[in-house]
Amino acid sequence: MPDWDERQKPERDVYGTQLTQAETIDARSSEEVIEERVEEATKPLGLWADTWRRLRRNRLALVGLGVIIVFLCIGTVETIFYEAHWHVRPGSDVSAANAPGYLAPYDPNEVNYALSPEGLGSPPSWSHPFGTDYLGRDVLSRTLIATRIAMLVGIIAVAIALTLGLLLGPVSGYYGGAIDTVIMRLADVFFAFPYILFVLLIMSVLGAGFQNVFIAIGILGWATFARISRGQVLSVKSMEYVEAARAQGAGDLRIIFRHVLPNSMAPVYVAMAMAIGGAIATEAALSYLGIGVQPPNSSWGLMIAESVNYLAAGNWWWLLFPSLALVATVFGFISFGNGLRDATDPKLKE
Amino acid sequence: MIAYIIRRLFQLVIVLIGVTLITFLMLKLVPGDPARALAGKNATPQRIEFVRHQRGLDRPFYVQYVRYVERLVHGDLGESLYTARPVAEMIWEAAPVTIQLAIAAVLIELLGIPLGVYSALKQYSFWDTTLTTGALILWGIPVFVLGYFAMYVFGLKLDWLPIGGVGDTVLWIIPSSWTSFTYLILPALTLGMIEIAYISYMQRAAMLEVIRSDFIRTARAKGLSERKVIWGHGFKNAVIPVMTIAGIDLGALIGGAIITETVFNRPGIGLMIYHAIGQRDTAVIAGGVLFATFFFVFANLLVDLGYAWVDPRVRLED
Fold first, then answer.
1. A51, A344 in Cβ contact below 8 A?
2. What is the mean pLDDT of residues B166-184?
3. CA B163, B165, B170, B171 torsion: positive or negative?
4. ipTM value for the complex
5. Contact yes or no for B274 and A289 at CB 8 A
């Protein structure tokens, strides 16, 4: 039901020009406007509503969130349809016409030498908007299908790191003493290695392959989460509600995981967003170096590595499109993470 | 200060033990029998056993570890399984190329400090938005992607700069002529740009926090000129934490240098490790990683000590 004042609100001023939003608000009684503002500003909000209110003002973070959602959707659709669509009829002829409900217009692994004159691929055209590579494979389809691996690495590797970190960090912070010393010195050791080199070292032991990428990135990521959650636990440990819980007879584990941890997760979420971006970039770097995803599978890093040998021949499209996808995704996670940090950091709150 | 230095050195020893232990474990965990590999392809079982005994590979785990550390202390990083050359010698040859690139990138990355301060002082202005957006986008670009685009545009299309290789140097790292300097420009800019993005973003945040703090308000209240408030009081306090971040970020810089080398084909530690990965030459990979890690750990120690020297609060923290 429309508000009474809403209906009386003049849409045009006395000269007949359209009023802007700000002017129509000012046209109402100022007392009411102030009341509304005060109510909006003082309305008690939950942690997430409050964070969202702050995050909404940060345009970069919103762009980041949008990018994340788009790529997550692409990744999900690819995952669902890839097996169902291409793998049911191996070897059969595939064309754009019979690819219903599937984003990639061609089979990403279909080799077609006719589309690659002189082995250099063909530049973007209407039928192949991103061009084709040296085997005549459609770059658009390969870029889309690589989204799946990038998202999987980001999510699974960070889930592994998060689980390890959230087990060790809070325990370390809550108990202190010898346990704390051991866990934190171990974290120091993990931080002592330049990150990508540590990943390379682990990968050289595990061997190439994309399951090992999950493991390497996941195992190496725990120290970040452990440090953050430990610091958070230390800062809430001595608060009264923890004492209250203990007085009621709650055990250590219950206090840590039911009372302390949920109240100290905001920085962990920020670190998660950043870590997913980092994991995707690391997977690309590993695949670029030849020890991540193996051909003929598709990964943005691998596509870049394959394209650069032909760069001198002017094959820009084959480098550009996977790079754009990679950069956009990593940017999405980093800028969303940064926005989330600004929105949840108590130091930056008004 | 002395107490702080002793505490940090003690931590350093623990970290170094941990780092060598992990590297040693990695060398042990590599699939395949090292004695068989060392003995050669067609070695008899007796020969393999002899090599195993000679190299101490039949001793208990901790004895092998102690011997490994002993050899490290004497500068022996083992031999390449592929070329049989001592790894330490390969690193000695490759290190100047990497160090040259890293130093050049650090010099470029320092430009991020004035950019960040400017952004913070003009918060929400057009330039602030542009710089912050640019920094976030650059930050998200993997170094090899930026490297290949720089190579494509400036090396291949415009043909201004060489696309790979390394120039002659004097005193290990100083380019001896303009021509050899040109080899450094593209790699150093590639690596430096991404670090500029990170440093300027951090500097902006630190400066924003400082100019909102009480002592700045006091400085303003007692009537100091705006210039004195910002540069005399604000900047000093905002730049120190960023220097520490830059120290920690040195790890990313070293990692970035490693990958940049593979893009521009610079025969440094990175290219060495890259080739070793292709040949599954774990001794070389571990040696290179260990060298870079030691470099990183000691650089960090120096940054931390410098920080503690400038800011006495740090010495008292745990």
1. yes
2. 79
3. positive
4. 0.86
5. yes
